[in-house]
Amino acid sequence: MQSLMLPFTPRYFVFTACVVITAVLLLIGLESFKAFEIVVIPLVLFGGLTLLGIRDLIQKRHAVLRNYPIAAHLRFLLESIRPEMRQYFFESEKDGTPFSRDTRALVYQRAKIDLDKRPFGTQYNVYQEGYEWVHHSIVPKPIANEKFRITVGGPDCAKPYSASVFNISAMSFGSLSANAIRALNGGAKKGNFAHDTGEGGVSPYHREIGGDLIWEIGSGYFSCRTRDGKFDPEKFVALATLDQIKMIEIKISQGAKPGHGGVLPAAKVSKEIAAIRGIELGEDCISPPKHSAFSTPIEMMQFIAELRRLSEGKPVGFKLCIGHPWEFLSICKAMLETQIYPDFVVVDGKEGGTGAAPLEFMDHLGMPMREGVNFVHNALVGINARDRIRIGTSGKIATAFDIARAMALGADWCNSARGFMFALGCIQSLSCHTDKCPTGVATQDPSRRRALFVPDKTERVYNFHHYTLHALAELTAAAGFDHPNEMQPIHFSRRVSNTEVMSFARLYPALRGGELIEGTSDPRFRDAWAMARADSFHASM
Fold first, then answer.
1. What is the DSSP letter of 259?
2. Residue 454's Cα: distance from chain center in Å?
3. Parallel/antiparallel/unpaired status of strands 413-416 and 390-394
4. In angstroms, rounded to a whole number, what is the distance separating the alpha carbons of residues 202 and 185?
5. Are strands 213-217 and 245-251 parallel, antiparallel or unpaired?
6. Strands 166-168 and 413-416
7. Quick check: 516 and 332 in contact, CB under 8 A?
8. CB of 183 within 8 A of CB of 246?
9. Going by C-beta distance under 8 Å and a sequence separation of 6 or more, which residues neighbour residue 245?
């Protein structure tokens, strides 16, 4: 059980000040009746604040109050007046800023089972460039009761996995606290959906509750590495064959920092993390920007086949942010040449989040999620492999509309990181890299992470997933479908100017089956396909 004996830090200054003032006033008041008459009002005031602070410390619903007793109530005051004061405090965010506050509010409401309906219609300017919508049907379908799932595992997979269409995206222990990992995995277990470990390896906190895991293996090979940082098959087998591990995901690149490798700032590298990862204490934990287990597309396919064999036939795939198009097409050519196919590909959009990365990487490197998903979908269609390879995706996905849109563009399932962080109580303070997260989500500080009460946050993670899928079922039925995987680009539209609207089918044209093999004239693929080589990631000029 976590101790309530907390060290004094500036976080508790207001509470401590109230305790001290209350004690002083009480001593003064006890000296004489006349003195008591003078101090009675401030004594009641500061005494009440002291009791409020004690309540904040022992309550388990709001992590920020546990970390900032009394002081954090200002945040809830502003939150309560938010609709009326939006123009002053909460102006609309433009594309490229951390996350829509409307979306955050929606996640909080679903996680807490609060009312997620709102009056007065849409708050979007539907005539502004960029507005998007899904078409509804005059003959809607009954709302599906099933929890939408997709089977992952091609012909070479002995143990296919039935995955939810909405899962927890990769977030490592180390980036997140132990309590955050526990709550995420507990919610995944209760809701029967998957929890991606992130590249930090499989920690005891991932395994403690028993929820389904997707084991992400990055270039640092954490949890399956030798002393010099290379891949260790024996350590891999020891974990990969556990029943809790449902799929193996090789991380090639991450949307927020493609080509940069993973970074865990030194401030967050505790003794525990250093021991789990096999790294030095007090230094930034930096994964290499590329893998040492393979260096060509053909070698990559062989590594995939080897991991599938070592894991006794579990689904094996890879995650990447699309960069040079010929590099992914080189992987496609390697599939054709070796006849080795991954079971899935996860496309991470460049808008994906991270705890620490250079500004230029976060803002201007890599392909956005929608274009990336559609590119990968068409490429696999073009080599006649789409029916055997599933596509997952991630990148600012938090609502049912986000999921439906991504699936229409080619995804089979979606992952969310920030959405589930919000469900945990994240207030997007942008202090992930400092180890001073105010809600105990992204910190290794014991006094901060204790604020995150696992049973309560487990329920919120489950609720967010459950009610988002319910909203997806309503949206799917209103569009006239039984399952969101029936949606196609033709069912979505985007306003491209004040006076012009285009269907997604025009914005994202489709390739024919086998078109790349036969030879394509599509300018998005023609030159890149000619440059792609199965034996090298470098282009053939």
1. T
2. 19
3. parallel
4. 12
5. parallel
6. parallel
7. yes
8. no
9. 202, 213, 214, 215, 239, 311, 314
User: Which pair of structure tokens corresponds to residue 124?
Assistant: 């979007």
Tokens (6 digits) for 469: 């899928």
Is the separation of the CB atoms in 254 and 348 below 8 Å?
Answer: yes
Using a 10 angstrom Cβ sphere, with 0-12 exposed, 13-18 middle and 19 or more buried, the burial of residue 536 is middle
DSSP letters, 34-87, are HHHHHHHHHHHHHHHHHHHHHHHHH-SS-HHHHHSTTTTHHHHHHHHTHHHHHH
Using CA atoms, how far residue 376 sits from 315, 348, 371, in Å, is 18, 11, 9
Structure tokens at 185: 């995995």
3-state secondary structure 347-362: EECCCCCCCCCCHHHH
Decide: 177 and 422 in contact? Cβ < 8 Å. no
Spell out the per-residue pLDDT of the chain, length 541, in tens: 344 444 556 777 788 888 888 888 888 888 777 777 788 888 888 888 888 888 888 887 777 788 888 877 776 655 554 444 343 333 334 443 445 667 778 887 888 887 666 666 677 788 899 999 999 999 999 998 878 999 999 999 999 999 999 999 999 988 899 999 999 999 999 999 999 999 989 999 999 999 999 999 999 999 998 888 899 999 999 999 999 999 999 999 887 666 666 666 777 777 887 777 767 787 777 788 899 999 999 999 999 999 999 999 999 999 999 999 999 999 999 999 999 999 999 999 988 766 566 667 777 788 999 999 999 999 999 999 999 999 999 999 999 999 999 999 999 999 999 999 999 988 877 777 777 888 889 888 887 888 888 999 999 999 999 999 999 999 999 999 999 999 999 999 999 998 999 999 999 999 999 999 999 999 999 999 999 999 999 988 7
Indicate the pTM of the whole model: 0.85
Report the alpha-carbon distance of residue 91 to residue 538 in Å, rounded: 45
Q: What is 150-168 written as a DSSP string?
A: EEE--TT-SS-EEEESEEE
> Could you tell me how many residues make up the chain?
541
- DSSP symbols for 194-218: -EE--TT---HHHHTT---EEEEE-
Spatial contact of 511 and 525, defined as CB atoms under 8 Å apart: yes
- Helix (H) / strand (E) element for 505: namely helix 504-507
* Domain boundaries, given as residue ranges, for the chain: 8-91, 149-530
CATH numeric code, 149-530? 3.20.20.70
Report d(CA 48, CA 71) in Å as an integer.
14
